[in-house]
Amino acid sequence: MSPAVHEFISLDLPAMLTGTLAVLTCALLGNFLLLKRQSLMGDAISHSVLPGLVAGFMVAGSRATLPMFVGAAIAGLVTVALVGLVRRFGKLESGAAMGVVFSVLFALGVVLIERGAARGVDLDPNCVLNGDLERVFWLPPASWSELLTWGTMAQLPRELVTLAIMAALAAALICVFFKELRVSAFDPALAAAVGMRPGLVNLMLMLVVAAAVVASFEAVGSILVVAMLVCPPAAARMCTDRLAPQVWCSAAMAIGIGLGGYAAAVHLPSLWGSEQSLSAAGMMTAVAGMVLAVAIVASPRHGVLGRAVRRRTAAVSIAREDLLANLYRASEIGAAPMQPVTGALAQRALRQAIERGEVAIDSRGPRLTGLGREAAAALVRAHRLWESYLVRHADLAPDHVHPTAMDLEHITDPAMTRKLAEASAGGTVDPHGRPIPPV
Amino acid sequence: MPEAWPGFDEVVRVLTLRAGHNSAVVVLAATLLGIAAGSIGSLALLRKRAMMGDCLAHCTLPGICTAFLATVWLGGEGRSLPVLLLGATASGILGVLCVQGIIRYTRLKEDAAIASVLSVFFGVGIVLLSAIQSLATGNQGGLSHFIYGQTAAMSVRDAAMMGGAALVAFAVSAALFKEFRLVCFDDRFAAAIGVRVGAVDLLMMGLVVLVTVIGLQAVGLVLIVAMLIIPAAAARFWTERFGRVFVLAGLIGGASGYLGSTASALLPRLPAGAVIVLSAGTLFLICMMVAPSRGIIAGSLRLMRLRLRIATDHYLRAMYESAEIDGAVRRRVPIAAMARERGWPGWVARGLTWWLARRGLIVAAAGDAGFTDRGLEEGRRITRNHRLWEEFLVTHAHLAASHVDRSADLVEHSLSQEVVEALETALRQRGTLPAVPPSVHPIGGPRA
């Protein structure tokens, strides 16, 4: 293979895959933390595993995976337990309790690192916090045919293999325990009542999160794991309402963030002529933030833009219906023709009514067409039926029902109008004495 | 463990700030920072925004790096402290605004908002930091000290800044004491009576920003959060009053700063910032245990006293009821049978017997217990409460007679005089009321 491809496979590919797998694992698990409103617990765990990592490191004397995993898992359990204790006995709110526990544990970790450094044990705190993706590499052979042999696969970097296992584990756990996770996220009381043991499920989730934090800290650092736990699930949550699509969507976003972030970190510096790439972990976080920002703004259902557009549309539609109802009422009492319509919203409403053929402009001003008269009659009928209902069945005073009926008339469909008519027992006038338009 | 423990003289010298200019400055600065951070942190804690300080601290990183890059690009030195702190403040405030925007305009909740903004800003900061490190200039070293702090390298200027921050915090809080207190405890009421809650919140947040930014270089951004939250949480165990929490949190913070920096000066290879936080954590633990009303020890003692009272009440009532069966209330009752009925282990029965005998309510001999006069009164009173409550539940709440014993078991201990009189009134309307009403259900037999 060519030198460039070889360089890519040995330097870039492992790091890219490692980072992406870290993002994917955290994103999958983070979905459930997000729903349980425990995203900050991910923040707390990723700070407080530090003493566990350092202890494991000092016990093993090297960065061997297993002792650090065990140390971090213990630290994760201790964190969850301590936060619970501080909340119960200290009567603190959960945010404060987490802040107390994780900052003390983190300080303990920093002290342990310093003391350990005195004994020649070398664990760089920077690396623990920020990750060291750039040091993940592989030495594949020079030809394609030998690439997929067992010998070369066995030389894959340890971080990559660990994260691959973690990602598979997380995915498997989510598939196997999907029901339990879903019910205990949305309704813990129901989960307890039907015997799904939400306490155990929660504990399992926290343990796996702690393990994912450890596996990921070498790639993206323990603090940036928080971004991966929150941003892809949050962005997916903005896009969909159901859990399974949310998990899939967050997984897809995670993969995009991992690959895109790494690519940006490597290629962006060439924009200003620098040879050295930026921090890949930081870049992935920045990309995750951008994805979240885009989802917040542009998501069709819940995004800021979408909601603003829908509000505008609804406002115009409601104003149009108000216009029709007013023209109808004016014609009921034979009032003078309407004043010219002023105001941007009212003019838009008028335009929409004309486009729909409900209003026509003649020499005397806006006038209801046949179509418009029908629509207006239906609206006024709904309005007056609501007023009768509220006075008769809800015991409201007659002078209190108009604003409520004004709101309700816009969302009353014909089936509801029929039910209201039945409830009013065939009455033909509203509480103010005005006739209810017939069907 | 350290190679050589410091001698007593050395400890005293450091504690009294006589061990050299540098260590004196460091101890002083750390103490002032503890006072400032602790008292301002109490505002955040009472306003239920403790994690906002964490978010604020992490969000300062991109601002610091941007300020550095900007000054370098404009041809300056790069490490000018006021500019860096200005950048930190600006991006910290921007982060807080982002969090509040997310909470208000999206369906994401507070925890997700804080966690996402915190980590994304920090990640962007890491990117900028790596960009700085790849620059050709030689001045970028030391920016990472904003992450970890360099307590031991604090100068007189730093101490002065921290003292100034503490003064500003006290002055502002004293001036706006009533408004702060009201907004912390009931912001809707405050808004209703015309207090500008938004402005007060902004001012509180400004104080938090001030302390965070100044404390960044002392203990680093990860640990400044601890100094904001832990002293305030510890102070909360001692009092419920706002002013006292504020002052006490400052004192506890100052104490942790003092103790931590002293320990770090005496013992080698202990990073000062971390040790300060550990001192704060230790003080928190101590407060959690020993505080009189909200502490764990006091709470456990209260619980034990309550349990003892409940158990002795049950004992006396059991005695009264078993003697009542054939009308001879002074008869001696076999303790073992009573214990079996009540489900008490042997040692519990023996302990209660001893305790009640000590209090002069019973006389115990040869496995039997009998009432004294006082004990009889007490037993009658308890049984009366129990029966009154049972009657009330049956006649007024329409519960079945077989269902009321458990509830009365719990309630009989806490009926005050007014409640008993009210029960008597309610029941007397139904007819005459004997001194101890008869039980609505059969007594004896297996009891749950």
Question: How would you explain this protein's 3D organization?
Answer:
The complex is a heterodimer of chains A (439) and B (448). Chain A is an all-alpha fold and 439 residues long. Chain A contains 18 helices and 2 strands. In chain A, a hairpin with a 2-residue loop joins strand 1 (359-362) and strand 2. In chain A, helix 1 (3-35) runs antiparallel to helix 10, helix 2 packs parallel to helix 4 and helix 3 (65-90) runs antiparallel to helix 4 (94-118). In chain B, strand 2 and strand 3 form a beta hairpin. In chain B, strands 1-3-2 form a 3-stranded antiparallel beta sheet. Chain B contains 19 helices and 3 strands. Chain B is elongated. Chains A and B meet through helix 2, helix 3, helix 4, helix 5 and helix 11 of A and helix 3, helix 5, helix 11 and helix 13 of B.
Strand content of chain B: under 5%
**Mean pLDDT over the full residue set of chain A:** 85
Coarse structural class of chain B = mainly alpha
Q: Residue ranges of chain B: pLDDT <50 for 5 or more in a row?
A: none
Helix content percent band of chain B: over 70%
Q: Give the number of helices of chain A.
A: 18
Instruction: Indicate the mean pLDDT of chain B.
Output: 84
Main beta-sheet strand count, sense and barrel state of chain B: 3 strands, antiparallel
Distance between the termini of chain B: 56 Å
Number of strands of chain B: 3
Of all protein chain pairs, which has the greatest interface, and how many residues does each chain bring to it? A-B, 63 and 61 residues
SSE arrangement:
The complex is a heterodimer of chains A (439) and B (448).
Chain A (H helix, E strand, L loop, with lengths): L2 H33 L3 H22 L4 H26 L3 H25 L6 H6 L19 H4 L4 H19 L1 H9 L1 H6 L4 H23 L4 H15 L3 H25 L12 H19 L5 H29 L11 H12 L3 E4 L2 E4 L1 H24 L8 H7 L5 H10 L16
Antiparallel strand pairs in A: 1-2
Chain B lengths: L7 H8 L5 H26 L3 H24 L7 H25 L4 H24 L11 H4 L7 H20 L1 H9 L1 H6 L4 H23 L1 H16 L5 H25 L5 H19 L5 H29 L8 E2 H8 L3 H13 L3 E4 L2 E4 L1 H24 L8 H7 L5 H12 L20
Antiparallel strand pairs in B: 1-3, 2-3
